[in-house]
Amino acid sequence: MSQQILAVDWGTSNRRAYLIDQQGNCLAEHEDGLGMLAVGGRERFGAALALLCQTMGVADHVPVVMSGMVGSASGWQEVDYLDSAVPVQHLPAHLAALNDPAWAGRCHIVPGYRYRSGATIDVMRGEETQLLGAVALGHRDGWLVLPGTHSKWVLLRDGLIQTLSTYMTGELFAMLSAGGTLSAMMQGDAADAEGYALGLTQAARGEPLSNTLFRVRAGVVAKSAPAQQAAAVVSGLLIGAEFAAAARTLAPGAAITVIGSPALAQRYARAADHFDLSCNVLDPHRVYCAAARQFFA
Amino acid sequence: MSQQILAVDWGTSNRRAYLIDQQGNCLAEHEDGLGMLAVGGRERFGAALALLCQTMGVADHVPVVMSGMVGSASGWQEVDYLDSAVPVQHLPAHLAALNDPAWAGRCHIVPGYRYRSGATIDVMRGEETQLLGAVALGHRDGWLVLPGTHSKWVLLRDGLIQTLSTYMTGELFAMLSAGGTLSAMMQGDAADAEGYALGLTQAARGEPLSNTLFRVRAGVVAKSAPAQQAAAVVSGLLIGAEFAAAARTLAPGAAITVIGSPALAQRYARAADHFDLSCNVLDPHRVYCAAARQFFA
User: Fold this and answer.
1) Residue A138: how many other CB atoms lie within 10 Å
2) Is the pTM higher than 0.90?
3) How many other CB atoms are there within 10 angstroms of residue B138's CB atom?
4) How far is CA A57 from CA A49, A64, A292, B87, in A?
């Protein structure tokens, strides 16, 4: 059995790889822009992985476990979603073997989760590995929040997904910045504290984003609000919408655990405070390594 | 005094002009793509108007009244918003004279409205002329809905704006269709009745759009929902968000009046039915001509 595993978080735009030992120590780490889109087609994933192994000096016999969009319909090999009735800690028993003949036997892909409650469907692909790491670090119960392009709010009970809600927070922010009615006024600092707090306050009222986002523009063109704050207000509206929805089911003072980069985690911590929730932060790299350690057979 | 007026609804992407007589009869009508963006700069509006007059055979002495983005900061001449304390029927007394020396004396611009309630700011520019027409046609009281890129919901009391809420419905739909996570699956028929009803039903729950929009994708990638319906579901979510917000203040069975093209008005009528509201429809061209008639001095 190998003494090492290469774990690759292979997303849409980027990938991040960790070479870890059986104790979960990270021996090497690498990030680059060769995400699914940049790889450019199913048949080119092999070369992209070979390049990664070469760059990191990973030996030929080291097993590879990959998570994220690499397992989507546009990835290396489509892997069915796992039903959320399977507890997160059982994920290592559900890895899909890669069929690509050049890599078969050495590579596995972590399946994502499909969640269903009545007519509500939600999915994750990539975040399940963060959940596995969080559970391995003792977070088997409670709310886990994974902010990003598609922010995930997950309620775990003994490692079982109770609810899953995804918010297109990062994607909508990027879209609104890139074009349309708001983009010209969204060039200021999205972390501006005053603007962000304003957005959170407005989000708490539960009005539709299609309305509150327009009002950012209305305030500026009516010369009642400074354009420099607009990006931060939009950020507050979008992140605040997540908290306003969560606040429907969370008691005041309840705790959430955010797995995110320091900058994002800080913004979520401020929102948690605004919505009267307490907030722990976990470092996503540490969590991913804790997950990868579970993949030793 | 002139026997005719040329009224121009000069928007961001298009313009529509009506030559009317004192009885409000429309003698000629013209629409083209020379909206504010296509005109290409303040100093080129004069030539764009000259071309319009020539195309329509409008005599040199005929007064011109223009509404819409022509009066914005990026238009021909920025015209301050009117405070919503001014009743809609008084608009004709508040037209701004155009300063451009080549056209001064002949041309006026209709000011938009600024609405403020506490910290809530909203604005309109162009729709005020539709409101004037609606009031002229006897709709001085009740809810007027003007669907479009930026849908407006206005409550009038004796022609006075009581509330104004704008929703970026059309803009968000266009953005989501053009790029990002949902665009590939949004190529189906946005008017699909089943998908649209599904979106309306989900919108009624009042969950954030950033969440419900993602679930459209989740349903498709989890193979629980047909991709062909996705565009209609998104349309239902966005239009439904307007109705869900309005339903907070409207009693069941209450009436709204929609001023919109037949296709859009039909979609709003279906949503009204879904949310247990009754719905009248006014033709926007007829309404605009009714407004233009009020501009005879």
Assistant:
1) 8
2) yes
3) 8
4) 12, 13, 18, 75
- Report the length, in residues, of chain B: 297
Given an 8 Å threshold on Cβ–Cβ distance, is A167 in contact with B214?
A: yes
The whole-angstrom distance between B12's CA and the closest CA on chain A is 11
Whether ipTM exceeds 0.90? yes
In tens digits, chain B (297 residues) has pLDDT values of: 579 999 999 999 999 999 999 998 999 999 999 999 999 999 999 999 999 999 999 999 999 999 999 999 999 999 999 999 999 999 999 999 999 999 999 999 999 999 999 989 999 999 999 999 999 999 999 999 999 999 999 999 999 999 999 999 999 999 999 999 999 999 999 999 999 999 999 999 999 999 999 999 999 999 999 999 999 999 999 999 999 999 988 988 999 999 999 999 999 999 999 999 999 999 999 999 999 999 997
Beta carbons of B175 and A171 less than 8 Å apart: no
Residue from B161, B175, B210 whose CB has the most chain A CBs within 10 Å, to mutate: B210
- CA A200 to CA A202: how far, in whole Å? 5
User: What is the total residue count of chain A?
Assistant: 297
Strand partners, A115: A122
Whether the CA torsion B209, B213, B219, B225 is positive or negative: it is positive
Please name the residue that has the structure tokens 């992407």: B13
Distance, in angstroms, between A76 CA and closest chain B CA? 16
H or E, element range at B240: helix B230-246
Spatial CB neighbours of B287, under 8 Å, sequence gap ≥ 6: B130, B133, B134, B137, B259
Q: Residue A67 is encoded by which pair of tokens?
A: 């998570």
Instruction: List A117's β-bridge partners, or say none.
Output: A120
Q: What is the CA radius of gyration of chain B?
A: 20
Closest-approach residue (CA) in chain A for B198 = A119
Question: What single-letter DSSP state applies at residue A119?
Answer: T
**Contact criterion met (CB < 8 Å) for A210 and B167:** yes
Q: Order of strands, edge to edge, in the sheet holding A26-32?
A: A26-32, A15-21, A4-10, A64-68, A107-109, A96-97
All residues at 6 or more sequence positions from B24 whose CB lies less than 8 Å from its CB, including other chains: B289, B290, B292, B293
**In Å, how far is B269's CA from the nearest CA of chain A?**
20
Interface test with B, best of A152, A181, A210, A248 (most B CBs within 10 A): A210
| Of the partner residues A166, A206, A245, the one whose CB lies closest to the CB of residue B214 | A166
Residue in B closest to A224 by C-alpha = B121
Contact B258, B266 (CB under 8 A): no
Cβ(B20)–Cβ(B5) below 8 Å:
yes
Mutate to test the interface with A, among B12, B74, B121, B173 (most CBs of A within 10 A): B121
